[in-house]
Amino acid sequence: MRLSFPSRARRGSRKTVAATGVATAALAVLATGTPAAHAIIGGTEVSNDAYPFMVAVMDKGQGSALDRQFCGGSLVTADTVMTAAHCLVDEAGKPVSPKKLQVAVGRTVLSSAGQGQIRNAAKGGVVVHPRYLKGQEAYDVAFIQLSKPVKGISPIALPTQGTDALIRPGQKATVAGWGNTDTELPNTPDRLREVKVPILSHAECKTSYGEYDSKVNFCAGVETKDSCQGDSGGPIFRHVPGRRAPIQVGVVSYGEGCGAQGAPGVYTSVSSSKLWKTLDESAAGKKVKRGMNRR
Asked: What is the pTM assigned to this prediction?
């Protein structure tokens, strides 16, 4: 069973609770009978520096990133991280304070302080998609603007808006994250993991989830291979023949169970024209989009 944190988060979201959220985690256990898990189901470990664009979204504070990480993300410009909207809202459905956030960019092993670069969120640097804030949870994307740019790490590429060429049914995509690796018991990995999953048709996705919105979502996964709690906000990406660097096609959003039969993972599609056009509905969203050179 997939958990949702906090109460505003999507049903079956893939966000986990960091050490500072102990009280929330305890409530989750009481509400579901299942312990709150801190990743990738049916995946393998990733070698150091394989995916430098990966971001661990963390509670700001002392201690290891392993204990503070609660969502994933991706570096999309030198000073912008993309993640899931449900990772960055509080229990009232409002954007969290940037002062509470920190990110680790380019780190493969969370506990390895020598890897990657740590950045704080800039003042006013949490930007949640305006439609998500209005209750349209299919628009599950948000951005963290960093206090200073990341150096020496290339952002991940994004697809051309309005094309579905990279998310056609049957194609294989890769999901990476530090989320739960066990469908029965919580198992929190320190090293980044990845799994390849097949992209499914919109019809299959709609059969599994009544709330599924084909304009801004797609789904992927098969039994025993899926994303899970702690992977929320992380990227799903494709390796295209003739191109060395991967292209991100989506953001981990929600699902029922982890790797369960008939319950694929749902992703926010970053090739969706509607997703980017409606980002203009807030001044902050328009500014982020302009900084990313999106239409």
From this structure: 0.86
